[in-house]
Amino acid sequence: MQSLDAARIVALWEQQAHHHGFERTLGLLEAACPELSDDERLSLTVGECHRALLRMRAQTFGDTLSASIDCPGCGVELELALSVEQLCAA
Predict the structure, then answer these.
(1) Contact 49/29 with Cβ under 8 angstroms?
(2) What is the rounded distance in angstroms from the CA atom of residue 1 to the CA atom of residue 10?
(3) Contacts of residue 52, Cβ cutoff 8 Å, sequence gap at least 6
(4) What is the distance between the alpha carbons of residues 28 and 32, in angstroms, rounded to a whole number?
(5) Among the four residues 56, 61, 69, 77, which has the most C-beta atoms within 10 Å?
(6) DSSP 8-state symbol, 42
(7) How far apart are CA 22 and CA 19, in angstroms?
(8) What is the C-alpha to C-alpha distance for residues 70 and 32, in angstroms, rounded to an integer?
(9) What is the pLDDT along the chain (90 residues), one digit of tens a residue?
(10) DSSP letters along 45-87, please?
(11) CB 36 within 8 A of CB 12
């Protein structure tokens, strides 16, 4: 698996813009796992697909997934950071 450069990210965005859901996932999996045939990609479990896409994201943007949201009850900002590798290993 390789990291994606800016040109490849833009190309994927343009190629997948008209696709939805499963079709978009298959297009991204092709970029994440070019060594697999179409049939092999179709036989991946949901978990295997997510791991492959998360690892491609980590190689492209770094291992940390960061998120934040405001609590609807009290308005306090909640922050979370996860390691892709730790998440995939779980």
Answers:
(1) yes
(2) 18
(3) 1, 29, 32, 33, 44
(4) 6
(5) 56
(6) H
(7) 8
(8) 33
(9) 667 888 888 888 888 888 888 888 888 888 888 898 989 989 999 999 989 889 888 988 899 999 999 999 999 999 999 999 988 887
(10) -HHHHHHHHHHHHHHHH-SEEEEEEE-TTT--EEEEEEEHHHH
(11) no
> DSSP class of residue 5?
P
Record the tokens describing residue 9, joined without a space: 């990210």
Is residue 67 within 8 Å of 80, Cβ to Cβ?
yes
- The answer to whether residues 48 and 54 touch, using CB atoms and an 8 Å cutoff, is no
Tokens 């190689």, located at residue = 59
* Cα(64)–Cα(57) distance, integer angstroms: 10
The model carries a pTM of 0.74
